[in-house]
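Standup notes
- HV: blocked on the assembly model, inputs below
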Amino acid sequence: EVQLVESGGGLVQPGGSLRLSCAASGFTFNTYWMTWVRQAPGKGLEWVANIKNDGSEKYYVDSVEGRFTISRDNAMNSLYLQMNSLRAEDTAVYFCASGGTYGLLDWGQGALVTVSS
Amino acid sequence: QSVLTQPPSVSAAPGQKVTISCSGSSSNTGNNYVSWYQHFPGTAPKLLIYENRKRPSGIPDRFSGSKSGTSATLGITGLQTGDEADYYCGTWDNSLSAYVFGGGTKLTVL
């Protein structure tokens, strides 16, 4: 059974940092692109970033470019999202998902990130 | 303002059919595969359709996808109250080098 479990969410002040993790199991992690998607309160889904299976390619939505960094550890079957210079508008539930451009196949339950003073 | 345009809401009676449209451009839907996702608030989204018309294992054939030009369509037949959810289309945008979602469509089964 495929499982994606996010962790690391929480409350952080504007300008602060947070690192999300996503533990993957039940599939061959190192053969899949991986993706972060977020949903702000009352809003729709927003793609945040993705990373190629070997980590050689990374793409970001413009609003997080230069502030967020996506990475992965294939030996640990884990995906990460380092979030710096956080803003109120980054408040959202963050989902990790397997897949890249052809479809996001499996999703985690999400981790809530709240940016507030 | 989403790159992909979906109707904010659709509704139909149980047992009926509904379609949800997703309109884009040549940089996204016109030249890339479209996927469709079902999302019940507070839960993990679920992939319903990938590569325009393929269903992942376990997705019933009541759900179908099609694409023509720069527009894609999700069809749901034999509507059930359990189908009430938000539905999103998504695809890669070559100009933005980013994955883009539609704004989402709330389905109400009356």
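- HV (later): unblocked. DSSP finds no helices and ten strands in chain A. The interface with chain B takes residues 35, 37, 44-47, 50, 59-62, 95, 97, 99-110 of chain A (CB under 8 Å).
- Next: hand off to the docking folks.
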